[in-house]
Each structure stands twice: as structure tokens, then as C-alpha cells.
Amino acid sequence: MSAAAVLKPKDYKSATRPVWCPGCGDFGVLNALTKALAGLGLAPEQVAVISGIGCSSRLPAYTSVYGFHGVHGRALPVATGLAVARPELTVIATGGDGDGFSIGGNHFLHACRRNANLTYLIMDNAVYGMTKGQASPTSAPDWAGSKLTPNGPGIAAFRPLEIALSAGAGFIARGFSGDPNGLARQLAEAISYPGFAFLQVLSPCITYRPEQMEYKALVSAGFEPLADRNEAFRRLLTDDGFTTGVLFRAPVAAPAPADARQAAGDEAAALDALAREFTAARLRGDGGYEP
Amino acid sequence: MSAAAVLKPKDYKSATRPVWCPGCGDFGVLNALTKALAGLGLAPEQVAVISGIGCSSRLPAYTSVYGFHGVHGRALPVATGLAVARPELTVIATGGDGDGFSIGGNHFLHACRRNANLTYLIMDNAVYGMTKGQASPTSAPDWAGSKLTPNGPGIAAFRPLEIALSAGAGFIARGFSGDPNGLARQLAEAISYPGFAFLQVLSPCITYRPEQMEYKALVSAGFEPLADRNEAFRRLLTDDGFTTGVLFRAPVAAPAPADARQAAGDEAAALDALAREFTAARLRGDGGYEP
Amino acid sequence: MTPSFSLALTGSGGAGVMTAGQLLLDAAALAGRYGLMARSFGPQIRGGEAAALLRLARRPVECPDDDYDLLVALDWGNIERFADELPLAAGAVIIADPGQGGVPEVIATQAGRIHEIAISQLARDIPGGRPNMVALGIAAALADVPGGAVETRVRQALARHGDESVAAAIACLAAGRAAALEVTGHGDPPSAAPSEDTVDAGAPGPHLDRWVLNGNEATGFGALAAGVRFCAAYPITPATEILEWLAGRLPRVGGRLVQAEDELASINMCIGASFGGVPALTATAGPGLSLMIESLGLAVAAEVPLVVANVMRGGPSTGIPTKSEQTDLNIAVYGLHGEAPHVVVAPTGVGDCAPTAAWAVSLAETLQTPVILLSDQALGQTRTIVDPPGGELARAGRRRYVARHDDSTETYRRYAMTADGISPMSCPGLPGGQYTADGLTHTEHGIPSTRAEDHVGQLDKRRRKLEEYDYGPLWGDLHGAGDIAVITWGSATQPVREACQRAEACGLAVRLVALRLLSPVPASELEAALGGVRACLVVEHNHSGQLYRHLRAWTELPHPTLAWHRPGPLPLRPGEILGALQGLHAQLEAAA
Amino acid sequence: MTPSFSLALTGSGGAGVMTAGQLLLDAAALAGRYGLMARSFGPQIRGGEAAALLRLARRPVECPDDDYDLLVALDWGNIERFADELPLAAGAVIIADPGQGGVPEVIATQAGRIHEIAISQLARDIPGGRPNMVALGIAAALADVPGGAVETRVRQALARHGDESVAAAIACLAAGRAAALEVTGHGDPPSAAPSEDTVDAGAPGPHLDRWVLNGNEATGFGALAAGVRFCAAYPITPATEILEWLAGRLPRVGGRLVQAEDELASINMCIGASFGGVPALTATAGPGLSLMIESLGLAVAAEVPLVVANVMRGGPSTGIPTKSEQTDLNIAVYGLHGEAPHVVVAPTGVGDCAPTAAWAVSLAETLQTPVILLSDQALGQTRTIVDPPGGELARAGRRRYVARHDDSTETYRRYAMTADGISPMSCPGLPGGQYTADGLTHTEHGIPSTRAEDHVGQLDKRRRKLEEYDYGPLWGDLHGAGDIAVITWGSATQPVREACQRAEACGLAVRLVALRLLSPVPASELEAALGGVRACLVVEHNHSGQLYRHLRAWTELPHPTLAWHRPGPLPLRPGEILGALQGLHAQLEAAA
Ligand SMILES: Cc1ncc(C[n+]2csc(CCOP(=O)(O)OP(=O)(O)O)c2C)c(N)n1
Ligand SMILES: Cc1ncc(C[n+]2csc(CCOP(=O)(O)OP(=O)(O)O)c2C)c(N)n1
Ligand code: SF4
Ligand code: SF4
Ligand SMILES: [Mg+2]
Ligand SMILES: [Mg+2]
Q1: Which of A12, B248, C499, D352 is a plausible cystine mate for C578, CB 3.0–4.6 Å?
Q2: Residues C406, C420: one domain?
């Protein structure tokens, strides 16, 4: 595709038919994503969507950009490797609440700290959809809908936004799959943020959490972007989990990870110099034997 | 050892000589722990100390209680399994900041949520001691003391107390290895707490972070136990990382994980009943064939 | 050879083919039949096309047949997805609903007799009627499952939905039966006429004590019966049912289950519980097993008993989670870093899952080692009618030792060098038994050591305890006595066994060795079992012949020994194995 | 046989034996010698006892000798810990400082000539003098390393500490040298007199182009030279130096290193970078490799090139992190779940680390597969004087393909079936090449599939690309032509090679096959190399004979083939292998 062509949202969709159940919230997320990409005018080959395993993690193949459908819980490190190695690309990591907060929780913590330039979009349905409906970290302690925890998980639900803030994320937002336009706007903002941007999307699982069809009535666009971490914390203390919008946007992006990439210069010469560091000649302070 | 005998701190030490460098902060932690155990009058065989890998994780073998020196990063799940399977024991998980916050970060998050009855004591020296001094999650972004990150890790330091609070821990404290008496008191409180208790101990690494010898001048006993999560958050917003004491103590322990253990009753009869659930007889609604 | 009848019920999501299939299998059980039912789904998470694949017989059967005698299609949605899985027998009966459009080519081109029944119309004609109940009536009639048994089962299953539902279903059954007998010609079902060993649906009898269950449930039960009282769980297909079964049952025997954040946690939680003296198990599949590898090595080094039930699915990586393959033998045996000998066992059929799971628990506890039980999707998720286990199930018995508590001169020698390699083992709560379990190379006391004598001594000890243990007759099952042998394992055992029976019926005697103990390799038992054999075939359901390579590494196999194997997703069928056996035989004859 | 001189410098923490040892090795390099130095530490994290273990020679040597000719003890702190590691030659010279107490029994009882030198007193007598510099003077004198070379090296090393430091050190050297020659008798060093091939310390010459480095640095260099431009790191002994070396050097060639939170992250970061077209490597040891297993399977299935340099240490579990063992072959080859063929290679010595690392990178990139490079602590951490690699190092070359971007009729076939099994590979940024890489079984386009033709097709393709590739002569190194053969790999190669040379010197011709390619097994090359062999020995440094079993599984070995192996922590020494060879020879003679 030539850069000049103006692409529509549908141009960011592939021909592959989603495996999702009819009515699954993830359809709305796919729509919002394609809308956001079109809105930003990004060339599909400059975008990569990276995921783990779960219903939601099937998303990459339904787009026309580069995709990576990895293993359960590891979307973020794959995305980080790609973003660090190829900083000119637009990298979006995605997946479910189980993938991201349960098995992938450690990468979430450290991705927030590391602040590589990528967007992390979690489709949160408070359940493991793909494995037929077990409790996820965001399930309520008394949700007794799974045979694995017949009396409910019995433990406090995971608070994604608070954790992201504690861990150091610079951009934090919440969206709702039932509001594709709002979600597309939030996504576009997240993608444009020059660092790690986290976006929790409430995305109902029609099959194992049919009660989530009520989300529509519960959500309200209440967050206004705050630039101060402490204020954002205070705002969260009264959050009911259904407020949408951008909660926090750190004014300056933290520096890129570790040492900045240096110009490659003359590679052959550099390698030569490195090899010379090993020579015995160096041990007496000179540059080697050149007859 | 008979329960009647009054044990002294030294009775909780083993004959094994620590591998730690002379002056390592972990000696102070060992002393405080044995003091706390003696103070609580716990029988050594009723206590288990579980660790991962690192200098600090060597601690269990230096005690006379049951110990488990597992693999890197997995102290908490081992301790959780033990605490859930044997609720009458006193279970203490321990290790370093690398073990607990880097490779073990996910277990930390979920142990805070799960609230099993155990104590987690992190010896935080903001470095990987055992592997010769690389940056850990709690290292400052500009700490350039490691060849692996010659310009410093460049990313925000991990905030253990904030994360613990966000994740749902019910007891959160900070101690200092240079104050074994205060630390012993905090430890005793943590051990007595009927749920998950987290204790970050500033424990200098004399070898790779000699500048930490200054901690003595920096720490101050400033936390007073708060019972309100939001207040604790507010308190943390002004924390400099060197305030010690109990920050947070949730008034009521959350329930034990998942379903409560039921009386075993007659095992043989229970197994028999379970086997009968498989029979064809059940498919017609009766109890099987008994000629 | 087992005379049997195989049938498939297909339809789109929501059509209820799985319910119909399961009711038919249950009814067959009530009627004294044996049989099994596998489920096949399209890629949609829910609501896609589905097929219930049944086989019914008057003798025990535990594997699918070569092809299907009957196909009842509620509709044709995406039937081509199942074409590979649905080989139709010559002269098979195909029941098509004309209201669903023409018979698709993949089906029509197969040699079968197509009969039309307006299934959905029949259902619509009955108030509250449902097409899948009509299909059940059709299938039962053509599969010769007594109507009384079907009715009994349906009444019981629908009771909670009220009398009207039951009545509607019964009417549908009758309509289906009548239509089926009409279109196919009365009294002419493709299977044999009702034989004397079909039990009256109402009659009680020993057949009602048979188990109707899948291998996952059976595995959970065997573990529980052997003494497992702790489980840490992270869901994964196709192992989740083991965990779910235990979640509901452990509390009844004073046990506990924890849902873990991931498999790194679940395996270590099991280690913690077992260190505490409580027998522990977790269940997983390939990706989860991969994540447990490091900590399994810890369990080997620290000598912590535990069982991992690994339910294999198509690999590598995420592979095909819903399909069966015997593909994790390599990782199960060789996957640990360092020298980490442990035990690997596999059940040889659904009926063997409970005894093998119990044995796994008892081996783990006795030998203070992790045991990996290799089940697979075919065993785990195929609902099967089996005889309950014959003998007593094995039970956990851990060697315990407590230091005399006034003996303070020496600390507890947890890893003492013993002749049989099994050391005393205390556990928290026992006074005087304190020690620190360690994954570092350690002394007999458990103190870290880098000395050669400790390292080599403990390596020797841990190998010795596994190699010198007497595993008894459970190491493998032997059948037949020909001078051609087949070696196999796990779920391949049942199709191989049936292939051997068929070979025997054609006059070709075959000796079958089904290994239950996969590591350490029972080399001397195996070599004895193969005494006098002229040629050997190693059959398994994977791409590279993992058992074949493993046996080459550790035993002397007869010459020639051929490897016959192929990967999933299609199940192994007796006919293809019979073909391989006949090929080997012909080769020998030609050479002779 | 290599005439060589082996010596040990021992002392408590802070005594500076490692510095002295390293300066001696460096000086030997300046003097045109070859040699190596291993380090041994007690259990203390810092400040415990330590030993520098050197071997110096006039011909290339890359392994320790059977025993030590000289022991210079700065003090005796916990010397018994090193007793196993310090076998003294008959007539070895022991230099003891009388100020440190009597010579401990473990040393005194060995057959050696004990000489007393008041090392610390001599140092105290020199303002700013340090005992380790006196010890260096002693060792250099007795090892016949020219004083000029030592002085040159010491001047250069201490220059930044100022002239006074340098002067003090030089005085210590002289004092040590004088004392050593005095107590042992002038001109009577236990090694041969200075031979003509000892270079004048001041003279430049081609020997100054030799490399003085350890295998970890060499591995990092080889990878970098081959094209690696991304590394994700999680520290672990004894692999950390690879990561640290790269951290400092990658930026100079435009590459980047990220410190990861754990190995699950580091391997997946490499996958991400490589998916992005940037050759990637990570380094780890057994526990970390275990954690990477699941994602290595993903790299196999999604066909993502990458290299894992696994530096082996004592196992299982945490084992002995600081000691060498060849113990991770099993997990490297068989550790992945499902059918996940990939490549495993091992360098055959420190000098081979750079070329093998470069080859690993080029194989990964060409074959679109993960490659595991098996180094070990002995290779990784032994500072060695070697000739720089002879030929060009291999370089990464990935097969790229971009769909014509106006060709919109078909999406990119990333996993197209090709004759050689290697598919076209695009990467983000290339227009028209978009695809989704997937660990699920997939079609040629990368779309998830559960169909047999896709599953079997892709399994076949991935096996084919590895099995039909021409690996060229690097598959293994051959030496000698006897009718007894030794097969070995990795760091065992050097002691085996020396054993073969010694056997040859005693008239026993031995053929040596050192495998560099461990998986897929180069079966036909190996069988050809063993043509005409009467008997074979498989030598390795582990407990169960992992290579032996692996070769049995995949090749036909000569009869008889004996497995000779033992675990660490003690290094393999040529003498014990020679013994095994002679034993095999005697057995053959007896049978003949
Ligand atoms: C290592 C590993 N463990 C477990 C699984 C099984 N598994 C697949 S998806 C999934 C959970 C998915 O939940 P979530 O991420 O919330 O996605 P959703 O399906 O709800 O969109 C699990 C446990 C796996 N594939 N790999
Ligand atoms: C899986 C794995 N990865 C890496 C290591 C190497 N390792 C050992 S200890 C350690 C870090 C220790 O740091 P910390 O937990 O802070 O303990 P400290 O030594 O500082 O007390 C690492 C990375 C290991 N043993 N296992
Ligand atoms: S199971 Fe739930 S999350 Fe998965 S596709 Fe269906 S509705 Fe969506
Ligand atoms: S390296 Fe640091 S943390 Fe480790 S023992 Fe020494 S002082 Fe303590
Ligand atoms: Mg979910
Ligand atoms: Mg630390």
C-alpha cells in the first residue's frame, strides 16, 4: 500500500473470521482499534499487534497489520523486544485480563516501570473466556460461576489502574468496548503517547459472564487526564471500576530503556576494534602486531 | 524440644556458618528473626522459613526451624502451598529484592491479593548480590554500578509498599537491618497478623552497594499503623523510602483462600460415595446395583 | 474382534448434538452396552459446528473404530471441517434433513446410503419438541439402543425441567425412531439384531456398577483415592476437568485446592504442600508443563514427592489444544536441566486412568520424587463406559522418620545415604526433624556443598532409588504371544490392542507390550517380555517416534524394530495399525 | 604431548591470588606462551578462600593437566576445600609461608617438596608491598615465565595506581623471584629450561595477536560479529559475563541490550526483536533455560530465529552454580513440549567459542529456528590464551521475501511449503508482507488451523528444513585415524584430545570425533567418520551419559561402544580419559 492512499478502518481488518462468540465485547475493541489506526493514518506495515493466549488474544490475526500471537502471558516482553529493537514502529500489545494480570502480571509491573514506547490494551471481562469460564484476577471474590472456585475465588480483585500507577506507567486509561468511538479516541491517544500507555477496556464476555451486558448502564465517562501522580491516586480512591477516560498522562515521557542506541558507524571497524581488545598486545598497552 | 522449655534467640540459629560477607545487612535480619521467634515462644518445629535464591535467600539454613531453599523467585508459592495445606504452622517466606520483585513479582502481587496466613520478609539491598551486583527493581534509575547497565537501569524504581497496598496486602511494614530490636518487633507483629503480612527490610549490601552503609543516617521510625487503606495511600505519597514501622494493618483479616476446609469425616465412605457418582446406576437416578 | 456400531451426530452450535450424543451413550450404559463418545468442535469459541462421535459395543471398547456406520446431520454447517474425522463405512447410513439443503459433496461422494428425514419439521410438530431429541430417537433406533433405556435416561436428565419438557422429549424420541425405521426399512438396522446380552432398560444388574466417565475425572478420582489432599490449579485445555473435578471433591475428604496465578505458582504450591507432608497434585498440558520444568528439577533435587498429570494435546507450542497427540514424552522424560531422574507413567486407556493415577501418587510418595503422568486429550475427554478398577487402588505411603528429640548431638540427616537410596523424611510439625530442603547440591544434612563426594553421592543416591525399586507388574501390560511384537503406550494402546485382536482373527499372532512405566525404562522386564520375538513395531501417536527413540537409547530392541507413528489431530484407528502389522509380517515373510 | 607447567596460587579472600594469577597468565602470553587460568572459590560470597589454577605451555593447551607442579600458598585458610581440586604431581614444589602456620595435612601428606618463604614478611619489608606480588614473583620464577614479561604486564596493569605502586610491585616481584630461586636451588625450575621459543618480553611478534580471553567473552564476540544486535539479559552464573560483555559492546555497533525482569521476559524480548528482523541472543544457565522452554517452543512453531547461549553448571536445580558439568544436553535437545525440532551446537574449546557462536547465529537466521549453544562454566570462565579464529566467522543471512505490494489477491504466505522447508520471511516495516506469526498450528498464511493437512504439513516442513540442510564441515572435528574411536563434545573435547595425543605417544592410535552439531544428530557424517572402527568410547562430563544415550537413539554406533562419563564438580583430566582408553584397548586385546 502506498503511503499516499487514505485508508479506512476496514482496510485494517483481515479476511479472517473471528472465532469470538456472537456478541462478544472483543468485536467492539477490534472496531475501535481499526478506527484509531485509520484516524492516525498509520501505514499497516508500520504497526504490529502482539498478543498472548485467550479469546481476546486472537485479535492480531483479524487485523491487516503485522501480528504476533505468542504464548500465554508473554505479549508484553515480545512487544518490548520489538519496540526496543525497532523504535520506529508502532507497537501495540494486547490480550485478556487472565493473560495480562494473572500469568502475565510480572511483565505488566515491569513494563509499567520500563516505559518502552508501546501501548498495552487489555480486554477485561473478569473471566478466562478461552478455557471456559474460570475466575480471573479481576473477578469479584464472590463470583461463584466457575467449577474451579465453586464458592468464588474469595480473594480481593486486582486493581489494574492502581497497580499501573504504583508501578510507574505514564499513561493510564479505561475504556468500554460498547463505546467504540470513545474507545477509538482513547486508543489513538494511547498510541500517540511517547512511552508505555496502558488502557483497560471493559469488554464483556457474553458467554461466561452474561451479566456483563449490564456494563452499558454502569460505565460513565468520568476521568479527565491528570498530570500529577498523586492526584491520580486520589482520584482512584473513589473509583468504582466503571469510570472511563484517560486517568493519567505524565507530562514528559521517561527516557527510553537503558543506554540510547548509538549510530552504528563503520561496523567492520568497530568489530575489528573489539577483536583487538582481546589481543595479548593490549596487555602491554599497545595495539597489536602489524608486521 | 519440649514445648515447656523456654528458648532463647540463639536456639533458633543453626550451626551452619553463613556465606554472607562480613558486615552484610542480612546478619541483622537473622538476628531479628531469631529474636522475634523467641519472643513469640514458637516451637522451632512449628515454624518454616521458605526462600528463593540469592544471598538473602540463604537465610533458612541458618535457622533451626524447618527450611526450604527453593528456586529463584518462587518462595511465595511454596510458602502459600505450605500455609494452605498446614494452616496450623507459622510460615515465613523470605528472600531478596531481585527474588521477590523482579523474577518473583507476579507471586508478590497475587500473594498480596490471596491473603494466605504467612509473613513475607524481603531483604532489600537494591541489588543482585549473589550474581555480583546487577541492578534490581529497587535500584535507582541512575545507579551505574553494574556492567550490565553501565549507564544505570534508567527506569523508575519499584515501590514495594505502594504495590503491596494496591495489590491488597493487609499488613505492610518497613524495617531496617541495622535496628535488630525494632525489626524483631515488626517481625513479631507481622508473624502474629492473621493473614498476609509484608515487611520490606532495608538490608545493606556491603560489597556491591557500600554506599548503603549510610542507611543508618537516613532511616527514621515514622510509620504509625493505619487501618484505612486510603489513609495509608496518602501517607505513602510523601514517603521517602526510609521511613520504618508498620504502615498499614487492615483491621480484619480477609477470609482464607477459596472454600474452607471441611472436616474429613469418614474418608473411606466419602471415597465410596465419589466412586458411586461415576456409576451407570446414577444415570437412571438410583444408587447402583446391590445384589 | 469387537462387533460395534459407530455413529456421528453433527450440527451447528446450539443444535444440541453433544447432549443427544451423551444421552445416547448413557442409555447404552443402562442397556448393558460398552462404548465411548468423543467431541469435536470447530474453531468458534461457542456456537460453531460440533460433532458427537460415538462407538457402542457389547464388549469393552476404548477407542474409535476405523469408520462410521451412521451419520445423523441436524444441519450441514461447515461439515467439511469434520470430513477428515468422519470416514464413513461402505454402506453407511446418512440421515439428512431435507430442510437444511442438499447433502454437501464431502459427504455425498462417500459411499453411503442417504436417507432423508425432516428432523426439524418433526420437532416443530411437537409442542416444545427439539430437533436433537428427534435425532437421538433416530440414532438410538439405528444403533439398536433399546428405546426403554433411552427413555429412562432422558426422563432422569430432564426431570428438573418439568413434566412438559420430558413429555416433549419422549415424543421426539418416538418420532425419530419411527422415521428412522421407516426410511431404512423396518427391522433392518445396520447393526446386528438385538442380541440376548442387551439388558432390559428397566432391569438392574451388575452392568449398572460400570463407570461412565472420562479419563480426566478418573485421573482425579485415582489421585484422591491414593491420598492426594492438595491441588494447585491453573486452567488449561484439555486438563481443566481434572482440576474442576478435584475442586468440587477435595473438600469432602478434608483436602484443599488453590487457584494459582500461573503454572510457576501451581507447581511450587504443590511443592510447599508436599514439603508439609500433604500429598499434592497438579494437572496441566504441554505449555504449562514447560513452565513447571525448573521447579520439577527442584522437586527432584530436594526430593519432594508430587504428581503432575499432563494431558497431552497437539504440539508444539500452543499447537491444537483440543486435539490429541502423544507428543510430550520427550519433555516429560528428558526436559529437566541437569541430571534429574524422576518417574514418568501413562495410563493405557480411560479405564486405566484411576489405577495409574493412584500408582503415580504412591510412587511419588514412596520414592520422594516428582512423577509425571502422561494422559492425553483422547483419554481425558472421551466419555467412556468402563468396568470399575478391579483391585485395590494404590495408596500413598511416605517413609517418615523423626529424630529422637533428645538426640541433639546431630542434626537431622534428611538426605542420608541409604542402601535403597530412599532417605528418611520428616516434615514440619515433627520435633527434632528440622532440616532445610535445598535445590543446591547438598550434604546428607541438606547443607549446601560443592564437594565432589556430596555431589556424586547424592546424584548416585537419587538414581539408585529409582533404578533399584521394584515396580512390580504394573510396569506394563502384556497380551498375546506371537513372535511379532508391538510396543506401545498411553492412548495408543487401545487401537493397537484392537489391531492385534484383528490380526489374531486373521491368523497373525501378535504380542502386545503396553508400557505403563516410561521412565526409568523397565529395560529388563521389557527385554524379557520380548524374548523370542522376530520383529517389533513401536506404535505411537506423534511425529517423530518419541518412545521409539527413548527405547533405543535405553534398551536393546529386537532386530528389526520398526517405528510406526503419526501425529494428530486425527485419532489413531485400529485399521491403520493392522495395516502396519501386516506390512511388517509381509516383509518378514519376503525376507524368509 | 604438551610439555606444560601447572601451578596453583591459593589464599584467603582479599589476598589477591586471582590478580596474581591473571597477571602471570597475561605475562606468559606476552612471552609467547599458551596457557589458561581457572578460578575456584569457597562458598563465601566474598572474602572466602580462593585458588587461581594455571597451566602454561609452549604449545596450545585448553584444559587442565592431571596434577599441579607448583603450589604457592599465601595462607592456608580452608585449604581442605580445594584438596580435591589440587592433586599435586609427584615431586611438586609447595611454597609455604611459615608465618601462616604449619602446612595442613591434606597438603603435607601429598608427595611434594615443601619450601618455606616468608611471603608476607617479604611484602611487609617493601613500602607499599603486597604479598600477592611476592607470590607472583615466586610463581613466575618457578614457572619459568620471563621476569621481563611479568614486569611489562605489571607496569601496564598498575599504571593508573601511580608510580609508587608500580615500584612497590616490581620490588615484590624481584623479592619473590630471588627467594624462589634461592629455596629451590638456582637454575633448577621444575619445568624445562627457557627454550628458544620463549619470546623476549619486549619483542613484538605475531604472538601478540593471540587472544587472551574466556569463552564467555568469545561467545559474546562471535555473536556480535555474526550480526546479533539485540540482547535481553537476566543475570545468572556462569553466563553473566556474556551479557555484561555485550552490554558494553552492542551500542558500538548500533545494537541494544535490555535487562529483563526474568528469563520468561528475556527470551520473549528476543523473540520480539527477531520478529522485527534484528538478530537476537540471550545467555543463561540451566535454571534460566528451564524457564525459557515454553517460549523456545513458540520460536520453533512461529519460526523465529534466535540464539540461547546456555552456559552449563552443576545440576540439577540450582546445583553448583560455580562448577562445570555437561549436564544440559537432554533439556537442550529434548526439553521442548510437542514436536519442536531445533538446533543444538557446542563449542569444542575456548578458542572455538567465537566461531561456534557465529555459526549458531547464522544457523538460526538461515533456518528460522532457535539455536541453543551449549557452553559450560569451564569454557565460559577459564581465561585462556588462544590463537584467534582462523577463517572468517559465519554471518547471519535471513531469507527475506516481500510480496509485491500491488498483489492484493493473496495475503502473504509466511509459512509457505517449500522444497527445502525454509519459507519466505518478511518483517514489520515491509509493505505487503504483513502476517501474524502464530504458535497455534497454522496454515501457510499463518492462520490458526486444526486440520490434519496443515498440522502434518507444517510439522514436516519444520523437520525438513533442519534435516535436509547441509551443515558443512563444522558438524564436527576429526583428529587421528586409529581403529579405536572416541566421540565427545563441548569442553570435554580438550582433555579428550590430550588423552588421544598421549595414547598416540604410547603407540595407541585413536580416532577422535568431537561433535559441534548435537541436534539434529549428523548421523551419516558420524557413521562415515567411524568407518572401520573396532570400538568406541563416548566421553562426557555428566552423570548419565547424555550424549551416549542421544547417539544411541539416533545412530548406529560401532559395537562395542562404551560410555565413559562422570559428573562434576571436578574437571575432566586427560589422564583419567587415557586410562579409559587403555582399558578399552586392553579389553579388545583380551577378547581378540
Ligand atoms: C501456559 C499456559 N497456561 C494455560 C493456558 C490455557 N489458557 C489459554 S487462554 C487462558 C486464559 C484466558 O483468559 P484471558 O486472558 O482473560 O482471555 P479471554 O479468553 O477472557 O479473552 C488460559 C488459562 C495456556 N494456553 N498456556
Ligand atoms: C532462574 C534463575 N535465574 C537467575 C538466577 C541467578 N540468580 C541467583 S540469585 C539472583 C539475584 C539475587 O538478588 P536478590 O534476590 O536481590 O538477592 P541478594 O543476593 O541481593 O540478597 C540471580 C539473578 C537463578 N539462580 N535462577
Ligand atoms: S467466551 Fe467470552 S470472551 Fe470468549 S469469545 Fe465468547 S464471549 Fe468473547
Ligand atoms: S554480596 Fe552483598 S548481599 Fe551478598 S552477602 Fe555480600 S554484602 Fe550481603
Ligand atoms: Mg478474560
Ligand atoms: Mg538484593
Answers
A1: C499
A2: yes
C452 lines ligand 3 (CB under 6 A): no
Cβ neighbours around C409 below 10 Å, total:
5
Do residues D364 and D371 lie in contact, with contact meaning Cβ atoms separated by under 8 Å?
Answer: yes
C259 & C362 share domain = yes
Q: Is C522 inside a domain boundary? A: yes
Determine the Cα–Cα distance for residues D392 and D362; give it in Å rounded to an integer: 13
- Phi and psi at residue B191, to the nearest 5°: -65, -35
**Does the pLDDT at position A263 exceed 60?**
no
Quick one: C501 and C556 in the same domain? yes
C301 neighbors C438 (Cβ within 8 angstroms): yes
Specify the 3-state DSSP secondary structure of A290: coil
Model pLDDT, residue D528: 97
> What residue numbers bound the domain in which C447 lies?
402-469
pLDDT for the residue B289: 53
- pTM for this one? 0.97
Report CB contact under 8 Å: A72, C287.
yes
What's the half-sphere exposure (Cβ side, CA atoms, 13 Å) at C488? 33
CA angle D264, D268, D273 (to 5 degrees): 150
D404 lines ligand 4 (CB under 6 A): no
**CB count, 10 Å around CB of A220?**
12
Helix (H) / strand (E) containing B66:
strand B66-69
Answer for the pair D104, D10: CB distance below 8 angstroms, yes or no. Answer: no
Please give the grid coordinates belonging to residue D187: 637454575
Among C469, C489, C517, residue at a domain's last position: C469
Q: Is the domain of D156 the same as that of D267?
A: no
pLDDT band at C99 (very low <50, low <70, confident <90, very high): very high
- D307 lies in some domain: yes
- Tens-digit pLDDT profile for residues C514-567: 999 999 999 999 999 999 999 999 999 999 999 999 999 999 999 999 999 999
**Count of the separate structural domains present in chain D:** 4
Q: What is the DSSP string of C312-326?
A: E-B-STTBBTTS---
Residue with C-alpha cell 539454613? B61
Atom of ligand 3 nearest to the CA of A25: 8
pLDDT mean over C116-121: 97
Nearest to D47 among B22, B102, B130 (CB): B22
Nearest CA in chain A to C242: A148
On whether any CB of chain C is under 8 Å from the CB of A105, the answer is yes
Shared-domain flag, residues D406 and D481? no
Each residue's pLDDT tens digit, D417-455:
999 999 999 999 999 999 999 999 999 999 999 999 999
Phi, psi of B252 (to 5 degrees): -115, 135
Give the pLDDT score at A258.
46
C280-284 and C306-312 beta bridge pairing? parallel
On average, the pLDDT of chain D sits at 94
Which regions in chain B score pLDDT beneath 70?
1-4, 253-265, 287-291
The amino acid present at D29, given as its one-letter code, is A
CB contact under 8 A, B106 and A110: no
Determine what percent of chain A falls in helix, strand and coil, rounding each to the nearest 5.
Answer: 35, 20, 45
Over residues D154-160, mean pLDDT: 94
Is any Cβ of chain C less than 8 angstroms from the Cβ of B13? no
Indicate which of C18, C44, C45, C377 best probes the interface with A, i.e. most A CBs within 10 Å of its own CB.
C45
Distance CA B192, CA C86 (A): 63
Q: C-alpha grid cell for residue D44?
A: 563465601
Same domain? D357 vs D259: yes
Asked whether residue C57 falls in the same domain as residue C122, the answer is yes
List pLDDT tens digits, range D73-84.
Answer: 999 988 888 889
Query: Rounded to the nearest whole angstrom, what is the distance from the C-alpha of residue B134 to the centroid of ligand 2?
Result: 10
Q: The complex's ipTM?
A: 0.97
For residues A158 and B188, what is the distance between their CA atoms, to the nearest angstrom? 28
CA-C290 nearest atom, ligand 1: 1
